[in-house]
Known about the structure:
The complex is a heterodimer.
Chain A: H1 3-11, H2 19-47, H3 50-56, H4 68-76, H5 79-110, H6 116-128, H7 132-144, H8 160-184, H9 188-196, H10 201-212, H11 214-230, H12 233-238, H13 247-257, H14 262-282, H15 284-293
Chain B: H1 2-7, H2 10-14, H3 18-26, H4 28-34, H5 37-68, E1 71-72, E2 82-83, H6 87-95, H7 99-115, H8 117-128, H9 135-147, H10 150-161, H11 167-172, H12 190-215, H13 219-227, H14 232-243, H15 245-261, H16 264-270, H17 279-288, H18 294-325
Antiparallel strand pairs in B: 1-2
Helix pairs in contact in B: 5-18, 7-12, 7-15, 8-12, 9-12, 10-16, 12-15, 13-14, 15-18, 17-18
Amino acid sequence: MSTPTAALDRQRPRPPVRPARVLLHVFLVVTSLAWLAPLLWAMFAALRPYGETSEKGYVSWPDTLSLDNFKNAFQQSDMTHYFVNTLVIAVPAVLLTLLLSSMVAFYVSRFDFRLNVFLLLVFTAGNLLPQQVIITPLYRMYLLVDLPGITASGKLYDSALGLVLIHVAFQSGFCAFVLSNYMRMLPDELTEAALVDGASVWRMYWQIVLPLCKPAMAALATLLSIWIYNDFFWAIVLISTGENMPITSALNNLSGQYFTDPNLVAAGALLTAIPTLIVYFALQRQFVSGLTLGANKG
Amino acid sequence: MTAETDTKTPEAAAVPPPGPAHEQKAAPRGRRRLLTRRDRITLALMAGVPTVLHVALVWVTAFASIALAFTTWDGIGFDSIKWVGLDNFRELFTNNPQFWPAVQHNIIWFVVLILVPTPMGLFLAVQLDKRIRFSRVYQTAFFLPVVVSLAVTGFVWQLVYNPDTGLINSLVGANKPGHYIDWIGDPHLNLWAVLIAASWRHTGYMMILYLAGLKGVDPSLREASALDGANEWQTFKSVIFPTLRPTNTVVLVVTIIEALRAFDLVFVFNKGAQGTELLSILITNNIIGESSRIGYGSAIAVVLLVISLAVIIPYLIATFRKERRA
């Protein structure tokens, strides 16, 4: 539209410090702190020994601050085991979702078949459905599918494989939508030239289109890892053995079984949140751009 | 292209750039002839495998929900499936003390999200869009709740609400026996307590969507408005806000869907016991609870499905139509 103005605008120096600005900063600092308060409160509780808080009350000046609760939460509940469970689910799920959805997106955006729009609509709408709409038959289906020797439970139910499949099926709707929009921005000449040169369709996809989609793929990978890591619902319904649960839903079990005091629960909850926070801080740009790339995500 | 992804508004993402799209329409016939048999098989597999997986697990089950809603089934063997017509719905609408409260709570959930955190997110986005120092730091503070899982959020807020040891009761001196304010247990309070936690998270999400939308506002509009002598509020009201229309649509749809999907927080809080019933919780309790009433659970799912599709379908049709026109 008006690129010159936009460029100028970007270089425009920050306005001088005025009382209104100072006021805005004060407002933002106060609100930010209020926003972080629940997390900071959890941190504060987690750093204090239970004995002290039960004696002095939670709102009190701390005598001792230590990481003991974190250590105990980690050891008592064998959290490593649940982190591994999550890893076993999340890594294949993210990779498969990206692979499959990029293939659909490639098909939809590069070839003009009649059913393209409809196909994309099916994927996108499926992703917008609340999960509970499909859970009852899905749960039954998972109980019916026998996989002796393939999963420990002998079924799709109560297995990492089952969770991977539903994550891939569900999330590929969103990714196909975003990636097809992205691929449509690539010039047609790229693949046309390759086609004329006799390159196979697979080569076009794997060697030409996919490498160009790296920024979008990176953004989606970040989003997907956080979403799948954070999943609670599928795991609560489709996994019955506590041992098989990924970390987020395991926390729900642990808080009744092992975590006896609020301070330990706080530590456990914060430990569970750490991996997502690391991913977020490391890949903030990708995360935010991914979220706004396809903001029709529910 | 990398830079573009950052500034792209949601709607812009849905609309392909004008250039290639036109050419694409002319090209297919010639191009299709270039495809070998092998290419066609590859393409069929590339589109087919993901589609089969998605349709089998998402759409087949959604339709199965509809079918099962008219039956009773204890889940043991297929021959125990019995057609009962509208019985499940009749019972649901007239005889289930949790159903109408759940519908009501889902509606309240939406109304609260759209009236409180959404304007708050917009307000914060407008402030942070002013090219102020430390903008990133503030953004992170508001956005952090979106990154933390809802289940963990539930645990963190329980520490705030706990009658005995929680932050609020400790601060107001209501943490002694006889003076308890039971934020999680009291059916008149717990929905609002959960909604505060939900709003806490939703604000950051809305802020990011609006920030992206604001980046797409043509700066010359602002300048023109400033030259005309409009003050900040006037500029926002008459110039900026109208241009955010596409973002507002997305925000509305996202918020409705969030309200329909609401589950994790409530489940961690009190499993949807008195005062916090939601449709999603009723369905889940029918599955993982002791009574396996599949037809009945499916009937609730159908209600949820119908409401969701009433929102999803018009939205997607509008989005895709725009895309084709572009």
